Amino acid sequence: MPIAVDIDVMLAKRKMSVGELAERVGITPANLAVLKNGRAKAVRFTTLAALCEVLECQPGDLLRWEPTGPGAWAPGPGDAGRAGTGARGIGSRGAEEGQRPG
């Protein structure tokens, strides 16, 4: 799956167990394990927000896009910090900087 989940990294940084995180977020340890191991097909924004609140991080600290297959996108020199958005950014559809997408 091209979306990688880095909950383990944040758990290690915060010295927190899976059980403690699940309890504080309000989800079952089994559901957290599904998410943590990359087997989830979706995640609710409310769950993502709760994870970020408890772990004191941003969504990008927990989720990242990994390109797959031939011709997969790779960040260029000017794309630092924009992994997964391509050169134009999310939803820009070619709009110039400072203009609203049309």
Automatic annotation (TrEMBL):
Top-rank taxon, per record: Bacteria
Pfam family, one: HTH_26
SMART domains: HTH_XRE
Residue ranges, compositional bias (Gly residues): 78-92
PROSITE patterns named among the record's database cross-references: HTH_CROC1
Xref: Gene3D superfamilies: lambda repressor-like DNA-binding domains
Region (Disordered): 66-102
Family matches, as InterPro entries: Cro/C1-type_HTH, Lambda_DNA-bd_dom_sf
All copies of domain HTH cro/C1-type, residue ranges: 13-62
Protein name: Helix-turn-helix transcriptional regulator
Organism for this UniProt entry: Streptomyces boetiae
